TrEMBL record:
Entries under SUPFAM superfamilies matching the protein: Dimeric alpha+beta barrel (SSF54909)
Protein name (record): Dabb family protein
Keywords: Signal
Organism expressing this protein natively: Spartinivicinus poritis
Pfam families associated with the record: Dabb
Gene3D superfamilies associated with the record: 3.30.70.100
Domain (Stress-response A/B barrel): residue spans on this chain: 56-176
Signal peptide: 1-20
InterPro entries, alphabetized: Dabb, Dimeric_a/b-barrel
Length: 198
């Protein structure tokens, strides 16, 4: 039940973020997001499991093409869930993957997204290894299975245009580290929140 509530709260908190899916000149800055690559000399350190330990979430929403078949949608889900079996240096590095296959929100701000995934890691190092390109270019330091998945799912995503004319694929990603490294229902409700340094 806690996972269901947490998932609902996270997705509800993203309603303001998903409004960026509306393309107009007024929100052009939303589309100015650019990759934040890690410098090659930092690849090894940035992908270590002890780099910035703490619960780390990677939320992905997909806006699929209208004519996608149920079989293709099921294959997308199954391939994504299979990523949890990937190992880095002989150990599983993905703590958990959750999937939502139907937006049940009654708020009317779903913006057409069809699938939601929440991937949980135990450190930002594990997240960095997972993300790979465009943050890391050396295949020794990223999950090739995830890279293969990104190449597989791309043709199934809707593609719009940004105000600058660049492609706007039907995907939104939001990564964060849980404040205090715990969920909000931890046993010590009076504990102070420690904000991460940036």
């Amino acid at each position: 039940m806690k996972k269901i509530l947490l998932t609902g709260l996270i997705l509800m908190s993203l309603t303001s973020v998903t409004s960026a899916h509306i393309i107009d000149e007024g929100n052009a800055k939303e589309f100015a997001s650019s990759p934040k690559p890690i410098q090659p000399f930092n690849y090894k350190k940035a992908t270590q499991p002890n780099t910035k330990k703490g619960l780390t979430r990677h939320i992905v929403l997909f806006d699929l093409k209208d004519n996608i078949s149920k079989a293709h949608k099921d294959e997308i889900i199954n391939r994504f869930l299979a990523l949890r079996d990937t190992k880095f240096n002989g150990r599983p590095y993905i703590h958990n993957i959750e999937v939502g296959t139907r937006n049940i929100s009654r708020e009317g701000v779903g913006k057409g997204y069809d699938l939601a995934f929440i991937v949980t890691f135990l450190s930002r190092g594990d997240l960095n290894f997972y993300v790979g390109k465009p943050a890391i270019d050396d295949p020794k330091f990223y999950d090739q299975n995830h890279e293969n998945f990104k190449n597989f799912v791309g043709p199934f995503l809707k593609v719009g245009k940004n105000p600058d004319g660049s492609d706007n694929p039907g995907v939104i990603v939001f990564d964060y580290q849980v404040l205090n490294g715990k969920d909000s229902r931890s046993n010590n409700s009076n504990s102070a929140i420690t904000f991460p340094s940036y």
